[in-house]
Every structure is written in structure tokens, then in C-alpha cells.
């Protein structure tokens, strides 16, 4: 577990070292719909551009009204944290993210850059065709950039590596689902985040060693089981606060959490179509949960499956996709009498204020649990 | 006005514009109440395929929300509170919060019931908050909704890439039309759709002429007037023939004014542009600018009807030729018509709003073509589409020697954070900093 | 500035004719807030004494002073108390506390004690945060909403405004209500926006007609009330119509004493808030003592 934590905390060093070791190119990406397999098949390492927690005094010249995540992503670019990145890719998603991407490109015009359109109308009759076409364009751009063809064999291998990674991380979720979870929410989320910056083949080897170790652990203490939903996060501070207040985040519905790994690519002769179907079939982000409204139902199903006792909704300030989705989510939670608490995060997660909220939520849930489950206060 | 340089005269077309707008406002309630009539939420800005349905009125929440903001501060504030308490973020678009807050309240400004939508139709638009739009009414009461996409890619026009994107838009719309026919038992009149195709390009031609006339000194119209006209035939839906007649009349009057040097602002000595709408509740700042002899010639937004523009070699603005030419094929079927509508550019006529490759360049070209001295660019905290890249655009304008004034607020339809007095102070400092004192006080 | 217009009067009280030594159990609660600190002492379940003071820069010292004032020279020391619970922003600085409790529970419990069982909606209008609580059963929390980051420091901002406008804080509310019609509120997003905008309303000159002093107060306190209304409204189900509360409403916290805020909230909610013989600022400390 410590190895993953180190990699996550020193992610820029990891990528630089990977580059040195393999001679490969690093491709930074901004959105969770990035078809990483295509880039991986081209021999590149897809690395998720993640926000940090520095107060921003740099991006004011370029940005206004953006969420802190995208501001910090741009800040890191402007300050050279991502100087090892050879190219950047954005897939259609949140406009702030797109803004961070394009502004970075404007500042470093020599960088390879590409934009992939991913339909917001994910269920349309031609949505898969248009995404397949876009993946074809992306494949062509990468081939041009690297000077070598992406073979079907390379795509198959990439799909295998990514599918295995998803399977292994799903196993981690199963260990969270236990009555007495074998892994803490902060640890699990750390693994999820690490997977977005690591070479997945390398990570798979490490995960295969780690999972039996976790399975052998003594069961965790009982605690209030919480579900975390809301805007993407790039750290595990909130999970740690929950743990320090006597709870545990046993499941999440975050774009770069469970939604990132939940479904696999089902192999098909037409590899790009297989990938298009995988990305259009994944649990959708708030922005892309459009016509059929699957997100509230998915939140409920995960809540039930993981026997959660309550829900924490942590939204970034200025995160319009989640700001727009709250009505449907609240409505579902209220209809089912599920306790929840919503709050907004910013550049930092103020520990005392956040702790107050989490303690109050746990304080609200606990008496009910005592009565229903016969748990003792002690 | 003692400092008057140019002759001024009221616009004759005002009356017609007011009549059309009032009729549109009434149509919202009427189509919700009339038996057999359907009221849909959707993007009325794109070329209108809905003309194929009799008695289908598509109303977008943008103009509805803006209208509420301009009618009553108090009511719009209540609407936004209603949205906020139901989970809609305070940092979201004021138009959205006003319009759907009114639905949550269940009553309108005059006490009548909110005109509930019967359906939500494809809404391909550039702002994320548009993408998520149409969900409020669907989440609130079960009505059918169809998806649409604002297909897009970055960089110059790419005919190969366009093909799949156009096809996707065509198929999304075809699917919605078929479903509406099936669910509501309405028949779609293909002939009407095909006939309707002619009106929009003609309106765009008039729009372009008006834009070019606005480049003259003195400007024959001002931004405030343009705001009353530019939505007619788009967001403000009227019969296509009537809309065409309106644009022709507007072109004629503008041309007459330009030829006879009739000014919108009689003491014009400073030309400025904008980016995106101002605070609808505070349009009086235009009057304040007139104290300095400043006229606002509009923005790319108010000149939307002209389509995407580029600077020609002769220094004038003209249609962007980097788009695909319309396919040279006869239009006979519904599918042909939709393909014609969408294939000019998969990214739509408002591409200047989306594409950061084009956007900063296009704003500089617009500024140059219009011969402006300065630009006022609001920074709206609560509307991603209203604010995206605004600062990058300002840097671009600074690069060609155009001074930019930013002011902050929530959103054009939301007065929450707009410090009006501070804004006027900023105007003073900005104008005086450029060497312009007040001509009158 | 010679006068501190923001300074509200500190207070303390001790039950007469009752000796704590006769009680079989003594419990205390301390609510160490960012702006004010309260201590409440209960003897055998009966309120025995309390204190309400300014916190100042030293949370620990404030907790100690409040406790001493509540004991009122009766010789009662913390070591004589069986249970002491602390709550509030600076709770961890109350070194005498044996238990730390979250504010939501404490305010809910305290409000039930102060306003009776009919109080189902409690709005704690504090110096740092607004906490709105929906109660059921006797003291169970059904839902709560805390003001988001942008609205923190509400009570403190009102104090600052008292100084800026040179209006004694205890008079602000009444003066703000003395207007013909409420003007539109100033910015309701954040006090960093609201305060300068408010001051801007005072300016005379060519740009806009100046507001009268009371109208400025009204625009400001209306903004504060409107912000709170957004939190209260989130407590209840999403039916059609204006924001409303179910059952009866109780205000706690320092701003509960500002009629310019509470009256506007009552108007908007179409209800009259419950009243209590106790100082509304004591709710947190009383709740903590009862839950200790």
C-alpha cells in the first residue's frame, strides 16, 4: 500500500522515471472519458492531469470563474510541473476542463494536442458511430505523431491490460463491501488515483501482490458506512476525515472513482467499436447523464449494494455539472429516506469545518443505527 | 445634448420588434394552455426544424429567464431561491435558475400557473449548462426528452471529421421527430421543413449587411437596440416569413440611417464592443457611457445572425469561408433537409463561442473589422458559457492595442453579485485612463 | 473610532436560592464559537447558571472565563462537575471538557430545551456559520444544512457592518425595519462582496440616488436573511411553491437577536418564530450540557 501512496504523492517523479526507463512518451489527459487504451497501444503512458492544493496566484490572467481543479491544473502547467508531458489530450466533457486544456496548449504550442468528441447524448442511435469515428481520428493522429502504426495486436494487448486493471480494482471494491471492510476508503481511493497515473501493466503486477495481503488483514472496526458522491477529487483527505470521525467511505460514485473502472471493454473484432461501446456504456458523469437519467438509480444501487448508512455529497464550487445534477440526486435520496449531507469544497478542504459536518452527519445517522441494528454506543 | 455631432432619430422598427416580442411572450402561455398545442423546452437558436410540426412551440429557458430578470428583480430573486433550495447550485446560470425556479414556484409573476413543458427536445448548445438543460422539467414531471449534441472538435475545418459528426446530429434530430410523431400523434410536414430552409440564409444575409453597416461611423444602431432585435427569428420564435420581413425592414432602415449618417449616439467619438450579454437589469450603463461619447456597436453575440465572420483582405467582415459549402444536392426529404441544416459546419453557426482555436482569433478580427477603440467584457461567475475564455480573449484584444474593461457579476439574468455603483466607477477610471473626459454630467 | 458599535453586552446568570452542593449531579456545556462563547451549568437537570461572552483571540481563555462566570462565584469548579461537554468551532480548546459534541446535535437539543417540543426547525445564526436543523422525535436530527464556505463569518460581518455604519449592533435590526419598502438586497453570495456594496449605497453624487441610512441597513440585513433562507429551504421536501418550514421555527445564535434578520425571515416563510425566556445564544451550550 505504501508503494502506491508514494507513487501518487510523487507522481511527477514516477512519470519522469517511467520515461527514462522506457523511452516512451507521456500523454497528459484531462477528462475521465479518455480512451486510454488507444494511447497505451501507441506506446504512450496516459497520465491523468490532477489538481493539487496550492493556493493559486498564477492563472488569474487566463481564467475567471473556473473551478479550483481546472485552475490548479493550468497553474501546474504554467509553473512547469508537467514539463515532462509530450502531449495533452482532452475528451469532450466539462467546459472548465476543456478551458484548462486549451489554455495550456495555447501556452505551449509545440505540444502534441488532440481533442476527442464524446457525445453528451450517450444513448443515441449514432453515438457509438460518432465516437468510433473520433477514436479513428485519434488513432491516426497518434500514428502520425509517433511515426508507427497502432496494430490490432497492440490494441488487443492494451485492452487486456486495462481490463485486468479494472477487474483487480473491482476486487478492491468487493473488499470494501464486506460487513467489516478489509480496506479503508482512503486506501481504496488512493489506489484508484494511482491507477490514473501509473503504467497499468506495472500496477497490475503490484495489485496482484497487494490484494491477498489485504484479504489476510484482520477485519476493520465497525463504523458508520458512508458513500461519497460529487465532483472529482484528486486526494483522499475527505476519506481520512471521515475515518477520523468514526466512519468509513465504503463506496463512491465519483468520475475518477468507481465510475472509472466499473465496466470492462468487451472484446470485438472491431476494436474501436468495442472501445466506443465501453466508454459510452460506463457509469456516466453528471454531465453526460442526460436523457435516460441513470445516475440517481446507480447511486441508489451502490448505496444498497455496499450497505451504506448515509451519503456525503462533496461538490466543488463552480462545478456546474454537479451543481445541475443535485436536484435529481436529492430527490432520489429524499424519496428513499437516505440521510445525506451536501457541502462545497474549494482549493482546500478546511479540516475543522469539514470535520464538523462529518461529525454532525455521523451524529445524525448513528442513533438510527443503534435502534435498528442494536449497536451499542460504545 | 450640447456635444452632439451627429443627427439622431428614433428607430421606426421598434414598434414591430416590440409587437413580435410581446406575441412570443404570450405564445408561451397560450401554447401551454391551448388544446392540442405542444410546448417544448429546447434550443430555439439553431435553425428551426420544428416548423414541420403544427402547434409546436419551442421555448428556450435562456430568453425566458432573461425576460424574468428584466421584468422583476423581486420575482427573479424568488425564482433563484426556489432553484437553490431544490439543489441547483447558486453558481449556475441565472437564466436556468430564473426559468426553472419559476416552475418550482408553480406561479408566474402575474400569479398565473407556470406553463409546463410537454417535452424537452434536442438541445445541442455550446454551454454545459445548456447540455444539462431540459433536465429540470424532465426531472420535475415526467415528460419525454431527446438528446442532442453540440458536436465539436478543435482547430480548422476538417471535412473528413465533419462527416460522422453531421450524421450524428441528423440522426439525433430524425429520431426525435419520429418519436414526437409517435408519442403525440402529430404529423410532421416535410414540405414545410424544406420550405423553411430558405428563410434562415436570407435572414443571415440581412444580418451580415447590418453588421457591415455597423462598422460605419457614426454607428446607425447601438448595442442596446441590437439586443432587442437579434433574437427575432431565433430565440424569439415567430413565423419564418414574418421574421424574414422583419430583418429586411431592419436592414433597410439601418442602411438608410447609415447612408444619411443618422447616429445611435449623437456624440459618438468612441466605439466599443462587448462580449456576451450585459446584466439585463442594468442596461442603463449604456446611457452612462454616452456621457463620454461612447457607443457600443455590439458583440459577436449580438451579431449572431450574421453567422461566423472573418476579416477579409479589404478590412471588412464577411462570412467565414473556412466552413464547408452547403452540399450541392437537391433537398427533397426530411433527411436531406436536416443534412443541409447541419452540414454547413458540424460545430454550428456559433462556433466562435466554442472553439478556442477560432475564438480568440475571431474576436480580434471582429474588433478590427468594426474599428473599435475598446471593449467591455463582463466576467460572469455563474455561467460557464458566458465566461469561458473571456480573459484569453481580452489578452488577444490587448495584443492588438484594444483596451479592455472587465466587470464582475453573477450572470446576465442574475443581479446577485453585480455592484452597480462600482461598475460605473470602473467606467470612469477606464475612460479617463484612455484620455476621455465626460462630455456632459 | 472611539466607540465600538459592534460590541454587544456580555451576560451571565446564576439561579438564586439553590446551592450546587445540594445537587446529586452537575453537568456543564461550553460552546466556544468564533465570535462568542457560552457556558451553561445544569444541576440535576435544571439550568443553574450561564454566561455569554466575547471569544476574542484566545479560545482557551474564553472557555475558562465563560465557565467561571457561569459558576458566578459560587465556588463551583470544573472538578466538581461530573460531565462537561464542549462544542463549537473552538471546542477542542476547552481543556476541562470530557466530551466533544457536534454543534448540530447540541443546537437541536438546546433549542428543544429552550423552545419546547414544538420546535421542529432550528436555525442557528452564528458568528461563523449558519446551521439549520430539522428535528423529529424528542431531539433527533432528521436533516441539517450548514452554510457553505462563501457565507462563513456571517455574524462577524454584521458586527463589522455595525462599526462601518456606526450603528449600535443592538439597534441595527429595528432601524432596518423602519423603511417603507425593503430595497433589493445587496450581494447574498459572500460578505466580501456584500460589505463594500453596502457602503457604496451610502454615497451621494451623480451616479445613483443615495439610500437613506435605514435603507442601507435594510438592503444589508435583507441580504443576510435571504442567504439564511436558502439554507432553511433545503431542509424540506421539494414540493412546489415558496420556501417554507414544517412545524415551528426557532432561531438560536447571536443574530437571532437581530429583528432585521429574523423578522424578514418570518415574513418570507409566512410564520412567526417561537420565543423563549432564555438568551438564544445559549442553545449550543445548553444542548452540550444536556448531552454531556
Question: How would you summarize what this structure contains?
Answer:
The complex is a heterotrimer of chains A (378), B (441) and C (292). In chain A, 52% of the residues lie in helices and 12% in strands.
Describe, in plain words, how this protein is organized in 3D.
Helices cover 52% and strands 12% of the residues of chain A. In chain A, helix 10 links the parallel strand 5 and strand 6. Chain A has 378 residues and is of the alpha/beta class. In chain A, the strands form two sheets. Chain A has a four-stranded parallel sheet with strand order 2-1-3-4, sandwiched between helices. In chain A, strands 6-5-7-8 form a four-stranded parallel sheet, with helices on both faces. In chain B, helix 3 packs across helix 4 and helix 9 runs parallel beside helix 11. The radius of gyration of chain B is 21 Å and the shape is globular. The model of chain B has no long low-confidence stretch (mean pLDDT 87). The radius of gyration of chain C is 19 Å and the shape is globular. Chains in contact: A-B, A-C, B-C. At the A-B interface, helix 5, helix 6 and helix 14 of A face helix 5, helix 6, helix 7, helix 16 and helix 17 of B.
